TrEMBL record:
InterPro entries: HAD-like_hydrolase_sf, HAD-like_sf, HAD_sf, PhnX-like
Name of the protein: Phosphonatase-like hydrolase
Cross-referenced PANTHER family: PHOSPHOGLYCOLATE PHOSPHATASE (PTHR43434), PHOSPHONOACETALDEHYDE HYDROLASE (PTHR43434:SF19)
Pfam families, alphabetized: Hydrolase (PF00702)
Secretion signal span: none
Length: 230
């Protein structure tokens, strides 16, 4: 059994408090670009696909109209950035301490998101996490354009950092079913679902979580337990 050398952490809902920001930003984007006639149906889809690349979500909601999808995604990112700018952004309790502990244990830490790079950077700056806290921060565009549930961001983190000898040295943590699917498809032996975000324990387990935690604060101990074996 390979020890865990690379830990891939989701942002909103896992290490960063969401507090409804995604839904608020989506409401603004829908009103501006998609219209509100089917808003409740659209919102249900957004909730079900939390964790997916936002441009992919808007491609679905626009019925394949690429220009409309890009306008809607841009409106969403702008709305989310405005919410971050006025202070609606906070770390989940213990998140920074967890990252520091993981790195102190000799593990490499990557943060991943379904947001665009500009939004990810705004969140990191607002939290003061752009100070070298993590080894790597990735958005879907950094990994070929496909976000979750594809494994691309976790595998890109492995390729860029060379932190582990193979996928057996990766742990993935997130709050959505798509995070779990992404981790399992990447071959990570530790795929931790956390209950601080979009989806509950049943959905996380159904999507492949190897362990479900109350919060990311429990992740270091869960990794240690895995490494200790049965």
């Amino acid at each position: 059994m390979e020890s865990i050398k690379l830990v891939v952490l989701d942002m909103a809902g896992t290490t960063v408090a969401d507090d409804g920001l995604v839904e608020r930003a989506f409401a603004e984007a829908a009103a501006e670009t998609l219209g509100t006639a089917a808003y409740e149906e659209q919102l249900a889809y957004v909730r079900a696909t939390m964790g997916e690349s936002k441009i992919s979500v808007f491609r679905h909601l626009s019925g394949g109209d690429e220009a409309l999808a890009r306008r809607a995604n841009a409106a969403f990112e702008a709305a989310y950035a405005r919410l971050v700018d006025v202070g609606h952004c906070a770390p989940l309790p213990g998140a920074r301490e967890v990252i520091e502990r993981l790195r102190g244990e000799g593990r490499t830490v990557a943060l991943t998101t379904g947001f665009a790079r500009v939004t990810q950077d705004a969140i990191l700056a607002a939290l003061g996490w752009d100070d070298g806290l993590v080894d790597l921060a990735l958005c879907p565009a950094d990994a070929g354009g496909r976000g979750r549930p594809y494994p691309d961001m976790a595998l890109t983190a492995l390729l860029r950092t060379h932190a582990a000898d193979g996928v057996g040295g990766i742990a993935v943590a997130g709050d959505t079913s798509y995070d779990m699917l992404s981790g399992r498809r990447a071959g990570a032996p530790v795929v931790a679902g956390v209950l601080t975000g979009a989806h509950g324990a049943e959905a996380l387990r159904a999507a492949g979580a190897t362990v479900v935690l109350d919060s990311v604060a429990q992740l270091p101990d869960a990794i240690a337990a895995y490494e200790a074996g049965p």
